[in-house]
Task: inverse folding
């Protein structure tokens, strides 16, 4: 060997992904999910694709929204501190801060210096969300029509995804 440094392969203990570094594969992150009473809720596993095209802050935001939607995070649950989450997933604190700021702007969390980030189900956001969904659905419907997906197939797919 010509003195070339080779990183060892690493295996994720949760999903068994193998990569040269953590940045080339999906990485499973366990978030300590404690509610406002200090009781630990079920563990949330985040899978982040560091090599993908979706920004990390957006992946963090999307997975927290999904966890709120499926009931993993409930109204009043505390999220990990920015520093703690950044340390767990190995990203800059500004990345997590950007995700939390986006969640705050969208009404999914409130932040407070003493209690940190707390889940707040997005109250009063229905009309704005309906408008956003409508715009996105128009484009998806156009693409589905071009691909030859019938209205019935499209509605069945939407129902299946909504029911998850």
Result:
């Amino acid at each position: 060997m010509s003195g070339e440094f080779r990183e060892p392969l690493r295996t994720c203990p949760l999903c068994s992904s193998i990569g040269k570094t953590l940045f080339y594969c999906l990485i499973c992150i366990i978030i300590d999910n404690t509610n406002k009473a200090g009781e630990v809720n079920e563990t949330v596993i985040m899978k982040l694709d560091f090599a993908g095209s979706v920004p990390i802050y957006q992946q963090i935001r999307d997975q927290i929204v999904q966890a709120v939607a499926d009931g993993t995070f409930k109204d009043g649950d505390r999220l990990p501190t920015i520093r703690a989450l950044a340390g767990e997933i190995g990203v800059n604190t500004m990345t997590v801060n950007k995700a939390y700021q986006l969640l705050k702007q969208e009404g999914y969390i409130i932040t407070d210096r003493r209690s940190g980030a707390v889940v707040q189900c997005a109250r009063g956001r229905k009309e704005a969300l309906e408008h956003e969904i409508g715009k996105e659905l128009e484009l998806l419907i156009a693409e589905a029509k071009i691909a030859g997906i019938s209205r019935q197939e499209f509605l069945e797919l939407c129902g299946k995804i909504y029911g998850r």
